Q: What sequence folds into this?
């Protein structure tokens, strides 16, 4: 039976070429769009690791005044005056590598033949409470750390799992801009945005006398009055006497950054959706026509004892067979991506993208075949043969 | 004859409504997307005010200092040869770049070295400034600022609504003046019609408005700003900072666009003589003037050589575009083959009465072109609606997509081509069929 069906398909091979090219291309387009969307959504699913609601941030650009003692004083004074405002629940500083700032500080180090690629950030004692960081092992920085023998650092869970999967990371001393001791592990810290990949992050203590421009992070109490921003702006201006700054809302910045990822996904999704729909319509039209053309053949088979079900099954089998050939051809190209390693992503991502693309193509093809194959099954042998 | 063809075409289209719908759907949506994409590229990179001279512009937007050192490594391989171990050692010597610092240029490095480049008609140095928080009527505006010199207003032809550019003199005198854009005017001054001479307060300092520039479609950061301030307001210690990295960028208008090679070579020669700060370990300086499309491509697909980035960008874009047009074309061919097969008896009859191949192919292609034309018009209407939606929803921020006649012409030519191609192949196949078979409708 199958052999017979294959002969039938083989006899119509010239007609099917266009269909196969079309379905293969459709698969490849779906594969790339699914790959892109899945990559982004995988990143999106891991938590940010810090809060964005009710948090404001201002990166301060200090005067180029060489008197660093005065700067330290100004910074402390600013924290003090901001804490007086009842709406503010917590304030802290970090270095310019702060959430959504766009700044990165990368370094790689070789420690005992161990190569580490990490991203560095620096934050002060209150940063965990201000940003709502989740310390899962050890602790956040405390006052004693300021005079500790080894430079204290807090790392994220990703880094802990990457380098010390089976043992504890707390208390380890690693060579990273000098000898540093791990005092705590935080959950996630995706400071580049929700769609960014989680990296290995090392947070060190942001010293009060640092020359780096500080980023002020302010946590407000629930239900605060937004006009308080003007007061905060005035206080910063008066206290710092001419430092440059702009206050940003972390929640709106999060949304703003996400737009850059949503737009390409939506645009690519709708363009490929249109292409696939187009292909489906064409397929449907051609199938309807084909079945009309093959009435003679159907009539003959019916007259020789085939039941309606086997007729419609024949058409469904034919089209599924062609689809499978198309997908196999397309897979040959798609599989080159993981083999050649064009992009630095997990192989499972490609497999999922292939699976979803195949699923979409098969279901579309099936939907397009149902109506024409029912039409075919309804053909009455007498009328069909009479026409012939 | 022609009238007959048209009549026939419409008859045929009306007869098989479903196929006509599929064809029109494919053509019009393809054209709509093509036009929207071209409109986007045109708004970002096309020659419109304020970058009418874009073909002649070159930018220095990035300066890198690197530490390059010679790295020698020694590899030893031990192999067993005839039962005796043999040691095979290789010495590799290569250049390694182990430290790079990249940023915009400092004012001093531009000021000292790039004021007298050859083949240059005009040039300007500018610097992105801070974002100012401005409070007015209990609401906050965050205003982006850019610090510019007097030549900036000659290099870029901004459309002024009120007032005009400021002069070299007022820049040197550090006058407290500012040029604002239309959005800022509306946000800050509300319904006030004339705002020349009015004041804006930024961080407690008063600035007098001397000009208002109109909105424009391009979103390139070196022209898109809310406030344009004289660069002399930047503190002098930043302007005099001897480091090569800073916050400044430069734009040059070339005599002719082909001069870019000469300018690149000259810049390369000049940077050989620029001393790097002695207290740091960097030993190599890299500065390369780029055209706008090179800079744009480099920001999307990073490659040290910007012309390669541009090349990759063109390859990727045309590949995607090709794929995007190819699929609907195959679909259309597929449908057309089916459509034409349906009309085999008509073809047989026409052949029997003496129509030759060219006549038949001509007729089918003509019908297909009519269909493409209708689809093109629908596509144009859809594209205009889509552009309107995109512009009013402000998903692109302040950027407005322009719709140019040229956009329509290019997209239309592409669709026409695909109409002809998709009509030609099936028609050719059909016209080969023997009269008797055609009349019998025995064509498969």
A:
């Amino acid at each position: 039976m199958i052999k017979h069906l294959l002969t039938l398909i083989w006899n119509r091979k010239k007609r099917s070429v266009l269909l196969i090219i079309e379905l293969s291309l459709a698969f490849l387009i779906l594969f790339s769009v699914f790959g892109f969307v899945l990559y982004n959504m995988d990143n999106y699913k891991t938590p940010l690791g810090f809060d964005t609601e009710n948090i404001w941030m201002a990166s301060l650009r200090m005067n180029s005044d060489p008197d660093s003692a005065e700067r330290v004083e100004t910074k402390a004074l600013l924290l003090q005056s901001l804490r007086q405002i009842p709406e503010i629940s917590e304030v802290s500083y970090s270095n310019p590598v702060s959430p959504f700032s766009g700044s990165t500080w990368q370094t790689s180090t070789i420690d005992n033949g161990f190569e580490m690629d990490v991203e560095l950030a620096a934050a002060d004692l209150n940063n965990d409470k201000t940003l709502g960081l989740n310390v899962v092992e050890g602790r956040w920085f405390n006052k004693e750390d300021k005079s500790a023998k080894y430079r204290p650092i807090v790392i994220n869970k990703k880094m802990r799992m990457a380098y010390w999967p089976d043992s504890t990371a707390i208390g380890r001393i690693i060579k990273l801009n000098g000898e540093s001791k791990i005092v705590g592990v935080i959950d996630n810290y995706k400071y580049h945005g929700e769609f960014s990949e989680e990296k290995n992050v090392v947070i060190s203590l942001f010293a009060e006398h640092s020359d780096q421009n500080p980023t002020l992070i302010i946590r407000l109490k629930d239900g605060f009055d937004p006009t308080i921003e003007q007061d905060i702006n005035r206080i910063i201006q008066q206290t710092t006497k001419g430092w440059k700054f702009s206050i940003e809302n972390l929640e709106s910045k999060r949304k703003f950054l996400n737009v850059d990822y949503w737009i390409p996904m939506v645009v690519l999704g709708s363009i490929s959706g249109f292409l696939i729909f187009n292909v489906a319509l064409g397929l449907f039209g051609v199938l309807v026509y084909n079945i009309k053309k093959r009435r003679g053949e159907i009539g003959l088979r019916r007259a020789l004892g085939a039941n309606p079900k086997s007729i419609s099954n024949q058409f469904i089998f034919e089209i599924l067979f062609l689809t499978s050939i198309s997908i196999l051809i397309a897979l040959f190209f798609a599989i080159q991506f993981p083999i050649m390693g064009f992009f630095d992503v997990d192989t499972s991502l490609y497999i999922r993208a292939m699976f979803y693309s195949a699923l979409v193509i098969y279901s579309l093809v099936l939907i397009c075949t149902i109506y024409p194959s029912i039409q075919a099954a309804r053909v009455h042998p007498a009328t069909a043969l009479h026409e012939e | 004859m022609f009238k007959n063809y048209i009549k026939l075409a419409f008859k045929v289209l009306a007869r098989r409504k479903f196929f006509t719908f599929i064809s029109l759907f494919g053509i019009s949506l393809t054209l709509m997307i093509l036009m929207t994409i071209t409109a986007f590229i045109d708004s970002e990179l096309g020659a419109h005010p304020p970058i009418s001279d874009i073909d002649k512009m070159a930018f220095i937007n990035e300066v890198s200092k690197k530490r390059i050192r010679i790295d020698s490594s020694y590899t030893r391989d031990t192999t067993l040869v005839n039962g005796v171990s043999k040691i095979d050692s290789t010495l590799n010597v290569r250049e390694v770049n182990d430290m790079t610092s990249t940023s915009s240029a400092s004012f001093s490095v531009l000021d000292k070295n790039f004021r007298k480049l050859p083949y240059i008609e005009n040039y300007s140095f500018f610097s992105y400034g801070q974002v100012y928080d401005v409070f007015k009527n209990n609401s906050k505006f965050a205003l982006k600022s850019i610090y510019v010199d007097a030549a900036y207003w000659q290099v870029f032809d901004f459309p002024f609504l009120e007032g005009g550019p400021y002069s070299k003199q007022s820049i040197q005198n550090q006058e407290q003046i500012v040029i604002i854009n239309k959005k800022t005017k509306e946000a800050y001054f509300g319904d006030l019609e004339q705002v020349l001479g009015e004041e804006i307060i930024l961080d407690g300092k008063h600035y007098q408005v001397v000009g208002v520039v109109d909105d424009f479609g391009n979103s390139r950061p070196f022209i898109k700003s809310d406030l344009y301030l004289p660069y002399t307001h930047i503190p002098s210690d930043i302007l005099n900072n001897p480091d090569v990295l800073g916050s400044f960028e430069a734009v040059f208008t070339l005599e002719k666009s082909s001069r870019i090679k000469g300018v690149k070579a000259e810049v390369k020669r000049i940077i050989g003589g620029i001393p790097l700060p002695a207290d740091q370990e960097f030993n190599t300086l890299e500065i390369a003037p780029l055209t706008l499309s090179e800079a744009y491509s480099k920001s999307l697909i990073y490659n040290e050589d910007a012309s390669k980035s541009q090349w990759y960008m063109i390859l990727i874009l045309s590949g995607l575009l090709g794929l995007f047009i190819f699929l609907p074309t195959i679909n259309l061919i597929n449908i057309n083959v089916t459509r034409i097969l349906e009309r085999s008896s008509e073809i047989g009859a026409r052949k029997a009465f003496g129509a030759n191949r060219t006549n038949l192919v001509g007729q089918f292609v003509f019908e297909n072109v009519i269909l493409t034309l209708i689809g093109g018009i629908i596509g144009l209407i859809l594209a205009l609606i889509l552009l309107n939606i995109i512009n009013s929803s402000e998903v692109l921020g302040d950027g407005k997509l322009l719709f140019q006649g040229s956009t329509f012409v290019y997209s239309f030519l592409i669709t026409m081509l695909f109409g002809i191609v998709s009509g030609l192949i099936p028609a050719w196949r059909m016209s080969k069929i023997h009269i008797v078979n055609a009349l019998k409708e025995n064509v498969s």
In short: The CA atoms of residues 304 and 381 of chain A lie 9 Å apart. Chain A is about 55% helix and 15% strand. The two ends of chain A are 25 Å apart (CA to CA). Chain A has two domains: 2-45+256-387, 61-244.
